Amino acid sequence: MITTAMIAPLLELLVLHSFINNPVLAFTGVGPSTSFDWALKVSELHIPGYRETKQHFILDTDTTSNEEVMMTHADYSSLLPFQNGHLIHKTNGYLFTPEECSSIVQEAEDVAARMGWTTTRHGNYPTTDIPIVELPNTLHLLKSTLQSRLYPLLRHQFSPYLPDGTKLRVADGFIVKYDAAGGQSELKPHRDGSVLSFNVALNDSTDYEGGGTWFHSLNDSIRIEKGEVVSHASGILHGGHGISSGRRYIMVCFVILEGYDTWSMRFYNNVRDL
Ligand SMILES: *[C@@H]1O[C@H](CO)[C@@H](O)[C@H](O)[C@H]1NC(C)=O
Ligand SMILES: *[C@@H]1O[C@H](CO)[C@@H](O)[C@H](O)[C@H]1NC(C)=O
């Protein structure tokens, strides 16, 4: 006989499984109906998937010798004040060189020519993307850049909130392709299931019309130049603003704070009305 006690763990597994396959949490509106228990799934504790996927992004021993760049307030602009800090930032210059951006797009297109772009990873909000773990050169470049520039940048930007900025870890990342001519041209408003998210523009802003990262709280989208970075609290409502012509590639990464599950849940809950 099948009892509820037997089914419950199974249901939990199914929920977890579908969550892991849908790391982008989709919400179409704000208000009471969205105060669903998603926050419980934000920490590593509740996302065994992140515990595994973050392994791919752990720095190699040969990149740990990379010199860390000292970041200052002059390196970025901040928006959306909240408590002692800001929840959205954009860099005032590139973190990835034009050559690095080109090589990332090249590798993504080369690999996609063999295995295709993924369009099913994010459930109701499909993106046309390719996981960075499938792109060895990009993964190597990302790890080195995380060490030298990206983690120092995020640490500085979110220092008013982070209990320990040295515990930031990328847990997932992919290259997304927006194409006005077909496929995906926008990404509907949603919340990510991590602590911080960032995206890197891989194209010049003149390569497309429209685009940028749209934020509900700003009622506006932020457009950046090739190699620049937009970072934000994962839990705030945002989307990929539609492009009306051209093509736009971005690199998107989800970042967690290792060992701070309770703090992560609290942070997510605090910002999810924004
Ligand atoms: C976008 O940028 C990449 C290099 O970063 C380039 O290969 C590609 O042609 C650009 N796309 C368009 C539509 O200009
Ligand atoms: C949001 O921006 C649009 C124009 O971009 C404007 O028409 C609209 O009134 C704004 N909404 C709010 C709530 O400010």
From TrEMBL:
Domain Fe2OG dioxygenase: 169-257
Name of the protein in question: Fe2OG dioxygenase domain-containing protein
Signal peptide range in chain numbering: 1-26
GO MF entries: dioxygenase activity; metal ion binding
Organism field: Cyclotella atomus
Source taxon at top rank: Eukaryota
Cofactor names: L-ascorbate
Parts forming coiled coils: none
UniProt entry keywords in alphabetical sequence: Dioxygenase, Iron, Metal-binding, Oxidoreductase, Signal
Keyword Signal: yes
InterPro entries, alphabetized: Oxoglu/Fe-dep_dioxygenase_dom, Pro_4_hyd_alph
Claim: Metal-binding is one of the keywords in the record: yes
